[in-house]
Automatic annotation (TrEMBL), chain A:
Source organism of the structure: Imshaugia aleurites
Name used for this protein in its record: DNA repair protein rhp7 treble clef domain-containing protein
GO cellular component: SCF ubiquitin ligase complex
Taxonomic placement: Eukaryota, Fungi, Dikarya, Ascomycota, Pezizomycotina
GO biological process terms held by the UniProt record: SCF-dependent proteasomal ubiquitin-dependent protein catabolic process
InterPro entries per UniProt: Leu-rich_rpt_Cys-con_subtyp (IPR006553), LRR_dom_sf (IPR032675), Znf_Tbcl_Rhp7 (IPR056451)
TrEMBL record, chain B:
Entry keyword Nucleus: yes
Family: Belongs to the SKP1 family.
Protein species of origin: Imshaugia aleurites
UniProt xrefs under Gene3D superfamilies: Potassium Channel Kv1.1, Chain A
Name of this chain's protein: Elongin-C
Length: 639, 101
């Protein structure tokens, strides 16, 4: 509790003070002061007298009761008590005590009643009387059990402000301690939860958080307990607590603005108001990761406040309409890097106009989740008017097909290509595209091209010579031999990023796959690691279920080193067991994150410090190895 | 030369407050570490005094507190968070960004 209990008496007194402003004769300083607080010395002495009188009466009564019992005791002295007599005596004692208690209680009530009937003035006096704590040594009735007891310096205050007897004090203290303990437990539980949640994000905290983290945490009020609350109450107010008190971010650097934008977006609190925090006339880059709550006017305002924006990244931008693009064309906003997600309300005609007017400037275009506009014809306009595009990403654009795929060959400057087209495409068109743009490509990402065949892989092998990132996923057509030949004798230098997830046979009739393995299997995997192992940083081979156990043990044998490999995803590779993972820890000294969902044979593996092992069901309380694995532990793990 | 080997360094805020803290703590901050690198021959490295022109005394005090807090909890797990007053956090955030902490 922050607020002190302030008796309502004070308020009435203050009111009366104003009314009783009279002129009086000379008084002592104390009386004067007391009078100014509406405390009358006469009242105090009257109260004192009354208290004394009452206390005397009480004492007499008690003395009488005690006297009785002492007499009894004296009578009994010198006699040998039988059990029955003892019982009787006890009963009598209890009776006497009950009598005293009852008389005390009724007297107190009576007293209270008397005071009440005496009118307002006495009411105030009564309140003052109860507020005043008896001094140590005085007698007082316990607030909880009404028992009479001697006040000591250790007597505790009860819930209503009265004093408690020793027994009740103790009970109250115990209760307090209990509450505190359960609260502590709750906090530690939340903390554990938070650690697990961080672990799922691949964050393993060693040492203190960075000062930036701490500040951001304060800014967004994120802590274990609060985020839990927020999840429960789902209240935006609570989530972005302090952010609503921020008027502007000032000169925060771009990188931090981006971080803050990510956090606010994740918490879904980017609104017209919070958007303003990210708008500054001098900015050249704007990233908003959730525009779900922004209206068309907000986008127009964005461009009017930040007219020089070159890098625009708006996700979930459903209300990004024709008018907005019209404004961009009109004002000639110098956009060079454009990323839009779900901007479905921009018509084909407006896109064409935009490409025609502003296309020459575009260097990077990333569009995703367009199921209404952006058809093959509009895409041809894009190719025609945007010759400088170096980075193209088209994901989930439902109306693009073979025609668009073939047209991409027109982009002569292309360095980064990322495609995921929901419509079926012809493998030959894809192969032609790669052979045409392949030599210039630095990154290539082909997701869900389920019809692509070994021919596509061999085209990649022959055309691409400077890739650093390759993604080729969700395919059950390419063979292991195809993958093996891709990585064997490839003139492309070692890659830093490889994602070949979900390249496997999906024929339920043959659960182990055909004789000649489909998808990425042992041959391809070993060739891959042989080719790129020295420079590989991230590897995703999840669901490539035809890779054999022998192949894993061979690749991650603990002697072979992958010096920069940081992040591996081995989810749903059920053949992987504890010793393979242990070997992985040994083979990859820089490892920070291993994602292993559905790897049921990984049990109680010793996780080195600083590595996040995610998704292993049996390793809930993973054993964290301090320092390096020593030889003995290694032996026992690989047994 | 004596200053560059002293175990203490001085951080000076833009409003003239001086904070004398241990060199180890100061070097938690990447920027200060570079300033104090004896091989750099920066004036700061020679004199052992870093003037931080964009950070005021209140913020710098908190920064110093953090540097010691960080040093104290180095390599520990489940470190309790340091208290940061909300009204300081934006300024502190910028200072943290500048100092690389």
């Amino acid at each position: 509790m922050v607020f002190d209990y302030f008796p309502p008496v004070a308020i009435t007194m203050a009111g009366r003070r104003a009314a009783n402003n009279q002129i009086r004769g000379p008084q002592s300083a104390l009386t004067d002061f007391l009078a100014s607080n509406n405390i009358s010395a006469a009242q105090i002495s009257a109260d004192y007298e009354r208290r004394q009188r009452e206390a005397r009466q009480q004492q007499e009564q008690e003395a009488a009761a005690n006297g009785e019992s002492t007499n009894q005791n004296n009578d009994e002295e010198g006699r040998v008590e039988t059990a029955a007599q003892k019982k009787k005596r006890k009963r009598q004692q209890e009776k006497t005590l009950a009598k005293i208690k009852a008389s005390n209680g009724s007297k107190r009530q009576k007293k209270r009643k008397d005071e009440d009937s005496d009118g307002e003035n006495d009411d105030v006096a009564w309140d003052m009387y109860t507020k005043k704590k008896p001094l140590p040594g005085q007698l007082e009735n316990c607030e909880n059990c009404e028992k009479r007891f001697t006040v000591t310096a250790y007597s505790k205050t009860g819930p209503d402000g009265g004093l408690l007897c020793t027994k009740c004090s103790k009970e109250q203290e115990d209760q307090k301690k209990k509450d505190q303990k359960s609260k502590q437990q709750a906090v530690s539980r939340d903390k554990r939860r938070h650690v697990q949640s961080n672990l799922l994000d691949g964050i393993v905290q060693i040492g203190s958080k960075s000062l930036q983290e701490l500040c951001i945490k304060v800014l967004f009020f994120i802590d274990a307990v609060n985020s839990l609350h927020a999840e429960r109450s789902n209240s935006v107010q609570e989530v972005a607590n302090n952010i609503h008190e921020v008027d502007e971010f000032g000169d925060l650097p771009q990188s931090l603005l981006n971080r803050l934008s990510k956090i606010l977006s994740r918490r879904r609190v980017i609104t017209s108001r919070t958007l303003d925090l990210f708008l500054r006339p001098d900015l050249e880059s704007i990233d908003i990761y959730d525009c779900g709550k922004l209206e068309t006017e907000d986008y127009v305002r964005l461009f009017s406040v930040v007219p020089k924006v070159q890098n625009l990244n708006l996700r979930n931008a459903g209300q990004f309409k024709d008018e907005v693009l019209e404004y961009v064309i009109e004002r000639d906003v110098p956009i060079r890097y454009l990323q839009l997600e779900a901007a479905n309300l921009v018509s084909n005609g407006k896109w064409a106009e935009f490409f025609e007017k502003c296309g020459h400037r575009l260097e990077s275009l990333k569009l995703s989740w367009l199921d209404y506009s952006m058809d093959d014809d509009t895409f041809m306009d894009l190719i025609r008017h945007c010759p400088n595009i170096r980075r193209l990403k088209m994901k989930k654009c439902f109306r693009l097909g073979d025609v668009a795929l073939g047209a991409i060959t027109g982009l002569r400057q292309l360095e980064h290509l990322s495609l995921r087209l929901p419509t079926a495409t012809t493998p030959d068109v894809l192969a032609d595209l790669i052979s045409s743009v392949g030599p210039g490509l630095r990154t290539l990402s082909l997701e869900g091209f389920s019809d692509a065949d070994d021919n596509v892989l061999s085209t990649i092998h022959s055309s691409c010579t400077q890739l650093s990132k390759l993604r080729f996923t969700e395919n059950d057509y390419c063979t292991d031999a195809g993958f093996a030949s891709l990585f064997t004798g490839w003139s492309n230098p070692a890659l830093a990023f490889i994602d070949l997830s979900s390249n496997r046979s999906v024929d339920y009739a043959i659960p182990d796959g055909p004789e000649d393995p489909l998808g990425l299997a042992s041959g391809g995997f070993e060739a891959l690691m042989g080719h790129s192992g020295s420079r590989l940083e991230r590897l995703d081979i999840s669901s490539c279920r035809h890779i054999t156990y022998e192949s894993f043990s061979k690749v991650f044998n603990g002697k072979e080193q992958y010096p920069v490999l940081k992040d591996i995803n081995i989810s749903f590779l059920t053949k992987i067991d504890t010793s393979v993972v242990a070997g992985m820890f040994r083979s990859c000294p820089e490892l920070t994150k291993v994602t292993a969902f559905g790897c049921f044979n990984v049990i109680e593996v010793a996780v080195p410090k600083g590595v996040a092992l995610i998704g292993v069901p049996n390793a809930q309380d993973s054993i964290v190895q301090e320092g390096d694995l020593d030889a003995d532990v290694w032996q026992s793990l690989t047994m | 030369m004596a200053a560059s080997s002293s175990p203490y360094v001085t951080l000076i805020s833009n409003d003239g407050f001086e904070f004398i803290i241990s060199r180890d703590a100061a070097c938690v901050a990447g920027t200060i570490k570079k300033m104090l690198d004896p091989n750099s021959l920066f004036a700061e490295a020679i004199s052992g005094r870093c003037t931080l022109g964009m950070i005021n005394g209140v913020v710098l005090e908190k920064v110093c507190e953090y540097l010691y807090y960080n040093l104290k909890h180095k390599g520990e797990k489940d470190v309790p968070d340091m208290e940061i007053p909300p009204e300081l956090c934006l300024e502190l955030l910028m200072a943290a960004d500048f100092l690389h902490v």
